[in-house]
Fold this protein.
Amino acid sequence: MGRDYLEQIRTYNVRPAWPVAERAALLVIDVQDYFRTMVEPIMENILALIEMGRKKDIKTFFTRHGHSQPDKDGGMLGKWWRGLIEYGSLEWELMEELNPSETEPVIDKNRYSAFFKTDLDDRLRGLGIEDLIICGVMTNCCCETTARDAFVHDYRVFFVADATATANRELHLASLKNLAFGFAHVIDTEQICRHFRKSNAL
């Protein structure tokens, strides 16, 4: 499936580059029970990225979306969507397959962007991170907004086409095209894992 996506966005995906392990971080966006049905088809790829990251000592961050007081912290999301993920609920929990270690931070957020009113940027800067590898859900909401925000924060963004997912293929491809055109190097799981197996830096 990854090859198919990359072929369809080939016209826009014209800036080849590869992350450098020593200054890269993997960002796993909102892989929570709320999105289980959407995540399950790509979970194998997400887990492959996490495993590769751990082998190569690439820092991994998880994000978790939720609202403790929707009337106060829901903002436009609360007006736009009929329901929000309740902070502390079962649906809010990260999917157990992820099993983050004690050294892998979980960033709680309440907007699409993982940078909005969180300490993510400070944590990344403190570690000397320059390259961000993004996977998770939803492609066209939290993943894309975080990728665009990362670009604005001057990170090189690597967006994994077959380790992100959303409501349908049309929305997924639209985001991949937009990101490839102006914000991110779009790759697939096989490519990035092969890259890190061969070399930590190019």
Summary: Residues 113 and 146 are 4 Å apart (CA to CA). The two ends are 26 Å apart (CA to CA). The domain at 2-198 is CATH 3.40.50.850 (Rossmann fold).
